[in-house]
Amino acid sequence: MRNKQINIYLIGAILTLAVSPLLASYWLLGEVLHSAIALVVKPDTQQLLRNYRDDLKTLKRLDPDNQKEYKVRFLQATDELLIYEKPQLLKKILQDTYLTYYLVLFIAVLLLSLLTAIWLSHKVARSYKVLSASDVKKAEKIQELVYFDEWQAIASKLAHEINNPLTPIEMMVSNLSRTYENTTPKVFEESLNDTKDVVSEEIYKLKNMVSHFSQFSKLPMPVFKSCEIAQYCTTFIRQHQNAWPNVVFTLEIKAQVSNVSVDIDHLLFNQCLINVITNAVQANQESEQLNISLILSLENESDITIEIFNDGMPIDISNTEVIFKMHYSSKSTKENMGLGLAIVRKIVLDHGGNIICRSILEGAAFKISLPIKINK
Fold first, then answer.
1. Which residues form the Histidine kinase domain (predicted)?
2. Which CATH number do you get for residue 200?
């Protein structure tokens, strides 16, 4: 959630809580005034005031010395009688007075609410940033620890793989001296040639293995460039479809994805898709035709997904989590070191995205999520 949204939600909530009671009280004002006037204004009171005025007139004639005092009382009684005779006038006066104070209070509450909302929104936004930064740091640490654990596992595997060819090399070389001393030159020559063949074969295996690990360790940091993801996928299929003669590609682009842009390193992301497709082709070498579909869709307002389906051999659900491990491989060939999908995962993570393997009944599916570029 962005800071602007947080501010809007907080301001709206505080204004609603502050203004709602005032609006409710104003709506109830008419009922309150009507009930109050009904309690005060009664016909008996009006008659008493009329009698009081008549009495004041009589007193004015009988007591000329206090005429001024009687006159003031008479005017007061007349004003009060006017109010009792015209209750709507009283109601209007009270409404106008209440409205004046109401508007002053309303404006004061509104300003106070706005200031409070702005202050709180800044506090919440700042806390949200701190929390997000903390979560990002924790995620980065976890990712680093995962990478460290994986490298420990792969280092152990690498040491094991290096030690395997060293044993026959050591035995063959140490046996040469004994063969030279105890056999004829012809036998020694044969033993020397055998040793050379074994050493050459084992060195080839070592060089091939180291080459695979070197490919993974030398992955460069991505150099991002903005592009429309739909156009990128269209171009990728057009440029690479001839590399896999038995693969039939289809591209499905959802309507809302047509103009969505992402930041990617074209060379690295090409390698990412090539590894996924190559992995599918190698897993289905007996298939005369392999159908691979790329489906682009919006996962949410901030992420876009590329789902890669093939109709070949399904992936067991128990392997969907370990398939991206650096030392994992379902292929039995010695040349394969299980780094293809590990490279894919690293590239996607370096792009700020994520990749998962989905277990489906027919075929295999990979789902890549990438953050959408936000135009500022």
1. 157-374
2. 1.10.287
